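Before drawing any conclusions, I looked closely at one protein's amino acid sequence and its backbone structure tokens, quoted below without any editing.
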Amino acid sequence: MLTKKQQRLRRSRQTRIRIAMQGVARLTVNRTNLHIYATVISGDGSKVLATVSTAQADVRTSLGGSGKGGSAAAATVIGKLIAEKAKAAGVEKVAFDRAGFAYHGRVKALA
């Protein structure tokens, strides 16, 4: 019997295989109870092009600073910031990698 984390990692492997065949930059999302992280990785997977998270001090201050990194509102802010950083890095098209997390709540808000 697989644990909840093992099931999520199994789902994420399948997604990453499909995205690798596309050869396009990958927007990967990781969430914890306290924070949400978004990273744009190059098409060949060799380089991180942009990254944003609610754990960063400047983002925390814009959210109000009272530990509100685990909300859908915070995920929406992170989504906008990662889009700006990706455009600045010259990325126009990405494949959304939800890392096995359900497309619901904070992950959906970030997308």
